Amino acid sequence: MKFETKQLSDGKLTTQMIDQYKSDGFLYPIKILEIEEACTLRKELELIEEKYSKIELPKPIDAYKRGPANAVIPLVANIAKDDRILDIVESIIGTNILVWAAEFFIKEKKSDNIVEMHQDLTYWGMGETSAQVTAWLALSPSNKESGCMEFVKGSHKNKILPHNNTYSSKSLLSRGQEVQVAIANDQRILAELQPGQMSIHHGLMIHGSGPNISNDRRIGVAIRYINPDVVQNTSKSYAMPVRGIDNRGNFIHYSAPKEIFSNESLKLHKEICESQQKIFSIEKRN
User: Fold this and answer.
1) Of 261, 256, 262, 265, whose CA–CA distance to 82 is shortest?
2) Which domains does the chain have, with CATH numbers?
3) How far is CA 125 from CA 72, 142, 166, 241, 261, in A?
4) pLDDT one-digit tens code per residue, 141-166
5) Which residues pair with 188 in a beta bridge?
6) CB 3.0-4.6 Å disulfide test: which of 80, 89, 178, 262 passes with 116?
7) What pLDDT, in 10s, does the model give residues 219-237?
8) How far apart (Å, rounded) are the C-alpha atoms in residues 198 and 222?
9) Is the pLDDT at 23 greater than 60, yes or no?
10) Which residues of 107-141 are buried (b: 16+ CB within 10 A; e: fewer)?
11) For the chain, how big is the Rg over CA atoms in Å?
């Protein structure tokens, strides 16, 4: 099933699109960038990969490309702050917006890496909130061959469902978490995107992706947006304000990094990861 590119109204979602998102739990494809701009961002990423694979950091470069990459890599923070994306997000969660995490999801060419079918909110300690939305921006072609995201229409209307940790070496998820629900192939909607196009999905949406059998990398930026009403089930966690105000005070604020992998940002990244790991551990025990 293919979806036509969404025609925005002055850069924002129409009422019909918002209703479709609420009904389906996802929306795509939404054009955010011209292909040339997406390709430029990809080149910037790949220059960072090349340079910092040869420079010693506290962790391997791949660890910093995952959440919260926006705390240490200005490129990621700038994407997360892009008004063209925020205008879409505002239509879903309101005018006050924080970034809980932003990260690259990359499948190398001819890779058997997958993302098991799962619900994000199972592990984030935010409950079953609708005040969170994930934006997924493609920087390379994301299609069936390259292992694009797959959504189960309307599955966000479920509660948090039981999950199993597979710990598969093929998984791009931390524990290979997989929802314990049988999903037929005809229930999976392939969210195919061209570079510069974006999808958005609800935190309870059952989604995943298959292997990349293509001859190119599949590169996407996943940005986890929340509004200040969200509460985590531990002591305060971290978030980067990007629009409006935070009149709740449920998160420790931090700013976008001024330079890549500065000592200050590396320390912050470590603190955020430790905070989020506490949340993940509590969810695992529960």
Assistant:
1) 256
2) 15-285 (2.60.120.620)
3) 23, 29, 20, 19, 28
4) 999 999 999 999 999 999 999 998 88
5) 152
6) 178
7) 999 999 999 999 987 667 8
8) 10
9) yes
10) beeebebbbbbbbbbbbbbbeebbbbbbbbbbbbb
11) 18
Structure token digits, residue 50: 């090349």
- Answer yes or no: are the C-beta atoms of 156 and 167 closer than 8 Å: no
Q: What type of residue sits at position 263?
A: N
pLDDT tens-digit series, residues 84-109:
999 999 999 999 999 999 999 999 99
d(CA 123, CA 116): 14
Rounded Cα distance between 19 and 228, Å, is: 23
Nearest residue to 261 via CA among 65, 46, 106: 65
Q: Which pair of tokens denotes residue 114?
A: 């997958």
Tell me if the pTM is above 0.90.
Answer: yes
